[in-house]
Structure prediction request, 334 residues.
Amino acid sequence: MSPHYRPRRLRENSILREMVSETSLRADQLIYPMFVCEGQGIRQEIPSLPGQFRFSVDLLLEELKAVLASGVRSVILFGIPESTMKDAVGSQSKAADGIICRALSAIKNEQPELLLIADVCLCEYTDHGHCGVPGKLVDSDWVIDNDSSVHLLAETALAYARAGADVVAPSDMMDGRVETVRLVLDEAGLSQIPILSYAAKYASAFYGPFRDAVGSAPQFGDRKSYQMDPANAREALREVQLDLQEGADILMIKPALPYLDVIYRVRELVEVPIAAYQVSGEYASLCAAAERGWLDRDAVIRESLLGIARAGADLILTYFAVEAAHMMRDERWR
Prediction:
């Protein structure tokens, strides 16, 4: 006897299949990570991130026209100062004439319709590559001082907000930094600036291409004392609850694809928007497989982004953002 319910009945017709699709994604849910460097006339491809570039501010402004035309409406900026500008406390991160503050001001003046997110961290600006400042030696290795780092990060967030950032995104994983950033912004009359917190950021092997792009590989030790253990999921729930209590408006899980279970658990726990970062190693590995003909590029872009959204992410940071937006517009998304 034939079964009364046949799931394939809703799959045979392409129109019906789309009508009953459970997960959808729009271009305006995508956030495009971009790298801005010192100099003029620079558009330098990043070898480990094919199709992604370091831009000087002048050419970044030109590139943003194409980003907006694709349908993507938000970017997150990462700064690359000259190596001679780096120091132990990442002074250039908060400098009014630093690379990110100048970029934010210029973009806000010429492309006010873009939502500008500023990544708040010290790793691109320190000569040791860590997300905070060294405090003391333990077993012949420097330990990052949490509380000193938090105050520097809050000053950096304030500088970015004053320069034109619409959202600040602390990504360092220091304890208590969301509360400090919130207090500093509020005291400066910037209570309207949201905080997108990297609430559950793992000590992942998938960050390699990003560290190549910005020159932020740690010069001693690693980041396991402040970024999360990949083995832990319950800890992520504690982290996101702490950040919510401290004033976070949006919670981020990073990386995305290896941590879909964490995204799902957080989605079940909270009602605030959730972001997920499809990081550089995820992007680079999919690009490499597609380049060799092992995977269909369009298909894996669509499937990977839908998987992140299906797990519960409302917003996705991805280097595929502009490409995916073109796919949606050109009906290659189906």
